[in-house]
Amino acid sequence: MQSFPVSAKKLNQRVADESFTVYFRHGRSYIKKRTGKEGSREAMNWLDKCVEVAREAALKAGRLIQDAFYEEKQVDLKNESKDLVTETDRACERIIFDHLTQAFPDYKFLGEEQVSAGESQSVDITDDPTWIVDPLNGTTNFVHKFPFVCVSVALLVRKVPVVGVVYNPILEEVFSATKGRGAYIHNQRIEPSEQKELLHALLATETETTRDISSVDSVTKRLNGLLYRVRSLRMSGSCAMSLCGVACGRLDVFYDMSYRGPWDVAAGALIVQEAGGHIFDPSGKPFDIFSHRICATNSHLKDAVIEALKGFL
Questions:
Q1: Which residues bind Mg(2+) (predicted)?
Q2: If we measure between CA atoms, which residue out of 204, 150, 153 comes closest to residue 176?
Q3: Which of 47, 200, 223, 238 is the most buried (most CB within 10 A)?
Q4: What is d(CA 193, CA 188) in angstroms, rounded to the nearest whole number?
Q5: Is the pLDDT of residue 14 over 50?
Q6: What is the number of other CB atoms lying within 10 angstroms of the CB of residue 258?
């Protein structure tokens, strides 16, 4: 695969300083008015190339997950946590890194396994274009042959996700989104549910990886306070897949109070937003990708969820 023909550094400078920034400020209406402008065309072509390359990388890694899915795995623990890691996690990250850097050699790269192994000393993200990758979201599911596993690839510019791809190689589902241009499963546009009543909503969440008494008590207290307010509860074991579930209407609400890092949510959060859903901090404040807390809802349930979570944060 050849690198994008325009210098990545020059393209980013041109697009970010001119049409790209305005494009994010004004959304689709801006694109429509500026279709004939060179800067707008270049921004669109750049986004198309980025999502294409991200999808290719995810599919490559996904084939490795497919091949190893029903095999027995050698499992290690990350640092001192209960998070699992396998050689497939590491191999997938290498595949993705090689594919992305070949196409965009000037862009930065941050992968979950890279951070866990200490190869990257920080998860600080600059304004530069940065790929954020979880090579195998749902490793515990993968180890147990439970099919909610996925590859998550996102591109951030000025710390804002602009491209997101989530691929479940077991269910053969590819979710994708680009900023201001909607969200899709394969090539079909997706949107969240129209559920307006929290009492009839399907809620998803995750437990924390720590198992100390305080952490477990806070999780169970929160669930006890919410279960009577919703129809039912799911825990998929994959933050990225649950976010995509909200985006396509399978789930109405998802929250996670302790995701491990930005790689868990960067792609999925963009997919929810581009589908028409809400992404926010469970307190109701704006979402901070570094906060380890996220809530996703359809367009109707945000206020009800914030109210329901009061007292359990």
A1: 112, 134, 136, 264
A2: 153
A3: 238
A4: 16
A5: no
A6: 16
Annotated binding site: 112, 134, 136, 264
- Return the pLDDT at 25: 37
Say whether domain 198-309 belongs to CATH 3.40.190.80.
yes
Identify the CA nearest to 312 among candidates 225, 233, 234, 254. 225
pLDDT tens-digit map of 19-44 = 344 333 333 323 333 344 555 778 78
Is the pLDDT at 137 greater than 70? The verdict is yes
Which of 239, 260, 261, 267 has the alpha carbon at shortest distance from 251? 239
Can you say which residues are annotated as belonging to the binding site for Mg(2+)?
Answer: 112, 134, 136, 264
Which CATH superfamily groups domain 8-189?
Answer: Fructose-1,6-Bisphosphatase, subunit A, domain 1 (3.30.540.10)
**pLDDT tens across 265-300, in order?**
999 999 999 999 999 999 999 999 999 999 999 999
- Written as one letter, the residue type at 294 is I
3-class SS of residue 226 = helix
Region 177-186: mean pLDDT is 96
Query: How far, in Å, are 91, 107, 158, 275 from residue 12 at the CA level?
Result: 29, 10, 11, 25
Residue entry with tokens 């367009």: 299
Q: What is the helix (H) or strand (E) element at residue 156, kind and residue range?
A: strand 150-157
Intrachain domains 8-189 and 198-309 with the same fold: no
Strand-pair category, 202-205 with 232-234? parallel
Domains of the chain, residue spans: 8-189, 198-309
User: Regarding predicted confidence, which is higher, 208 or 199?
Assistant: 199
- Residue 10 tokens, joined: 């020059």
Measured in whole angstroms, the distance separating CA 209 from the mean position of its chain's CA atoms is 19
